[in-house]
Amino acid sequence: MNSEVLTPVLDWLDLAGVAVFALSGALVAARERQTIVTMAFFALLTGVGGGTLRDMLIGAPVFWIHDPWVAAICLGVAFAAWFTPMKWWQARLIDFADGLGLTAYAVLGASKAMSYGVPPIPAILMGVITGCAGGIFRDVVAGRPSIIMRPELYVTAAALSATLGVLGEVIGLPREIVWIGATSAGFFLRAAAIRWRWSLPAFSG
């Protein structure tokens, strides 16, 4: 299948994920006392990084090049962050918002991959890449430890959402219910990991 199968629900998940990741990117630049141009660059890189990599891998048109809203949202979020005090953006609040963007983007990435004929297991991986890659790009460019190196669950939450999204589509459940349920499940796992520092066992060998 060469055409995208997106609905208003998935479109809203897409824009919500872009906005949240763009904000996290802008705030990283803000904490480093960078210029508005650098903040806008970090917002765009973080907001579209995962989706860009996904589209290149599945052979789809790069989504933000053909959608007039995506880049505008990223730049708008950067300007909003520039004109607000840093104290408004508490670290824990941003972590929870990032968790919502992570899981929403994972569902979106997996569903879009399925719509392009990608088999279920690679589609799940496309969901994980969509959710995680933008934050990885942000951290690498900023020269700080990657978010995936934190001890609490992060990639696991994206994988849970992507897996539930793909399973729901495979067995034919209503898509809107699957997308909302899969996003919520991954977000609750990520929120619990933030709140109680849940993590998987580390390699000890």
UniProtKB/TrEMBL annotation:
UniProt cross-references to PANTHER family, sorted A to Z: INNER MEMBRANE PROTEIN, UPF0126 INNER MEMBRANE PROTEIN YADS-RELATED
InterPro entries: Gly_transporter
Pfam families to which the protein is assigned, alphabetical: Gly_transporter
Membrane topology, record value: Multi-pass membrane protein
Organism for this UniProt entry: Qipengyuania algicida
Stretches that traverse the bilayer: 12-30, 37-57, 63-84, 121-141, 153-171, 177-196
GO cellular component entries: plasma membrane
Localization annotation: Cell membrane
Family: Belongs to the UPF0126 family.
Superkingdom of origin: Bacteria
Protein name as it appears in the record: Trimeric intracellular cation channel family protein
Keywords on record: Cell membrane, Membrane, Transmembrane, Transmembrane helix
Domain (Glycine transporter) ranges: 12-84, 96-167
Main location per the UniProt record: membrane
